[in-house]
Amino acid sequence: xxxxxxxxxxxxxxxxxxxxxxxxxxxxxxxxxxxxxxxxxxxxxxxxxxxxxxxxxxxxxxxxxxxxxxxxxxxxxxxxxxxxxxxxxxxxxxxxxxxxxxxxxxxxxxxxxxxxxxxxxxxxxxxxxxxxxxxxxxxxxxxxxxxxxxxxxxxxxxxxxxxxxxxxxxxxxxxxxxxxxxxxxxxxxxxxxxxxxxxxxxxxxxxxxxxxxxxxxxxxxxxxxxxxxxxxxxxxxxxxxxxxxxxxxxxxxxxxxxxxxxxxxxxxxxxxxxxxxxxxxxxxxxxxxxxxxxxxxxxxxxxxxxxxxxxxxxxxxxxxxxxxxxxxxxxxxxxxxxxxxxxxxxxxxxxxxxxxxxxxxxxxxxxxxxxxxxxxxxxxxxxxxxxxxxxxxxxxxxxxxxxxxxxxxxxxxx
Length: 414
Fold this sequence. Notes:
Blueprint: H1 2-7, H2 19-59, E1 62-67, E2 69-70, E3 74-92, E4 97-102, E5 109-110, E6 115-120, H3 122-157, H4 163-195, E7 198-200, E8 205-210, E9 217-218, E10 229-246, H5 247-250, E11 258-262, E12 271-282, E13 288-296, E14 307-315, E15 325-328, E16 333-335, E17 338-344, E18 350-354, E19 356-360, E20 364-369, E21 376-379, E22 392-393, H6 407-413
Parallel strand pairs: 1-22
Antiparallel strand pairs: 1-21, 2-15, 3-10, 3-14, 4-6, 4-9, 5-8, 6-7, 8-10, 10-13, 11-12, 11-14, 12-13, 15-20, 16-17, 17-18, 19-20
Helix pairs in contact: 3-4
């Protein structure tokens, strides 16, 4: 029985932790919590400081630089020009009639004196027949007057007629001789007009226009009607190139200046041109000087009337004692005091310098004074930039993380 009682008895109670152990565990838990809090606060403070530093850095303007390069000994001046034929002759009829035939169409190359067309001139033909008949009559009258004058001269020697009558016969002979000369001149005039019924090329060239056809009524002269022009012939083995040069550059356009031209139909190909003369006068309408150049067109590639882009290779205009520099136009700052440029000074501080623009070349400008070669000029400066302002140079894209923020800041934020 006693053994049965021990087997059915409850297990002894578990030992309870002491008060000291509980206090130790609580202190450890508090310390751990404090450590976590301190670490979190320190991490957030570091992140806030890093963000503030990055923000302040981003507030500093980022600029890029261009170097003030000294002007070269030569420069290119590019201007539009127009190609004209060396000779260009609109051809009109000298006699009226109807066009009988034409022999050359547009684009044909002709020699001087070569037949272009013939005109049927029935009215002129009849006038010529009448003039020849009048000449024959005048010659017959002159022959009779000559015979009569000779007879009366012989009779005067025999005192058979008076001197007055003899003088009258000699005078009649002289008058008849003058009538013959007049009739001959009239025939010659009509023959010369008849020759104009053959329309010929005035020189070697190209037929650039044909404004008539078989059967057209031809009016004589250029002022007959606005449409009375028959042909247009141009001499194109040489071409005249006309360029309007701005007054500011006209003094540098002198004999010996080399030029090249390009035309749209031959992209990338250049043709040489030789300066021959200038108008030596400034147009009061455009403020430019007309310049003439000669272009050799023996190959026939260029055509009269072409638009051309002409590049003059001109000596540099050193107006600043050797300190002319060329910069992009985007460096200029326009203020009340005039034009300025921003230059990077010591410690990345801005220095604004007033400048004098010598010449505006479009994408670039020449600075005549205010800068020296080697100055580090800020390109496209902010409108609000002032002297003494701190700036930072643009960095290559590979040195920044996403959004332009340093990669370390992005990692800390995560």
